[in-house]
Amino acid sequence: MIKRTPMVAGNWKMNGSRSLVESFVNTLNDRPFNGLDVVVCPPVGYLSFFVAECFSVGGQDISDQDNGAHTGDISGEILTELGASYVIVGHSERRENHGESNELVAKKALKALDNNLIPIICVGESLKVREDNKVNEFVGKQLAAVFDTLSSEQLSRCIIAYEPIWAIGTGKTASPEQAQEVHAFIRQTLADNDKSLAEKTRVLYGGSVKPDNASQLFAQPDIDGGLIGGASLKTEDFIAICQAAI
Ligand code: PEP
Predict the structure, then answer these.
(1) Are 155 and 186 in contact (CB under 8 A)?
(2) What is the model's pLDDT at position 20?
């Protein structure tokens, strides 16, 4: 059994300020986390401040194009030059607000890999899908688009994040059992493609993770850490969540 290094990634979304970056960096620098990969995904303009302090950083989105007339988009090459090592793709807010399809998300994951960025590929269902008992079917389709586009070798460089939409920013966390059930499905889907992929791939949980629910979620066998939104903007909460992942 391969031991997967746990990971906690903070998604600041379109939040933060220069002063928050400074206090965050100063506080986290005093608390190194051995045996845990900690990544911050701030708005792109703040990446360099984190990189200067040797933090691992990621973008929140990437264009599926290399360059050109794509106002407001950001390329893999620019993210890499700014010092990013990771990039979130297919966050539900991108899927909803920008109409990103499963196929586009898969292309973005490929573009990330082409630029030596590790994609954190987000999947997850709406409340309606859950109430209709179609979670596996829905998440399965999201994953299928990725499997159709990436080779096993490319998939082995990806991270998956299960983020039920109804739990993002709502304060309604999936119970550890609900989350584990979908994580086990994701791992089985990976295994159906390639057994070693399933053992190696980190599958993070995201959706209202807080200091008081993190330990129980991270204790589940198929949950390898978290993608944290709101709580990643509160330094002490983020630290407590990181501690829960070790
Ligand atoms: C997210 O934005 O990816 C997220 C999980 O947000 P929150 O933790 O606030 O639910």
Answers:
(1) no
(2) 97
Residue minimizing CA distance to atom 6 of ligand 1: 229
Helix boundaries (H) for the chain = 18-29, 47-52, 76-81, 92-97, 102-114, 127-131, 135-149, 152-155, 176-193, 195-200, 211-218, 235-245
Residue of the CA atom closest to atom 7 of ligand 1:
229
The 10s digit of each residue's pLDDT in 189-212 is: 999 999 999 999 999 999 999 999
Ligand 1 pocket residues where CB is under 6 Å:
11, 13, 163, 168-169, 206-209, 227-231
Q: 109 near 158, Cβ under 8 Å?
A: yes
pLDDT of residue 9: 98
Q: Please name the residue whose Cα sits nearest to atom 2 of ligand 1.
A: 229
Domain regions of the chain by residue span:
7-245
Is it the case that residue 42 has pLDDT exceeding 70? yes
Q: 7-245 has which fold?
A: TIM Barrel (3.20.20)
**Cα 95 to averaged position of ligand 1 atoms, centre (Å):** 14
Over residues 93-115, the pLDDT tens digits come to 999 999 999 999 999 999 999 99
β-sheet bridge partners, residue 120 = 88, 159
With a cut of 80, say whether residue 82 has pLDDT above it. yes
Number of Cβ within a 10 Å radius of residue 116: 13
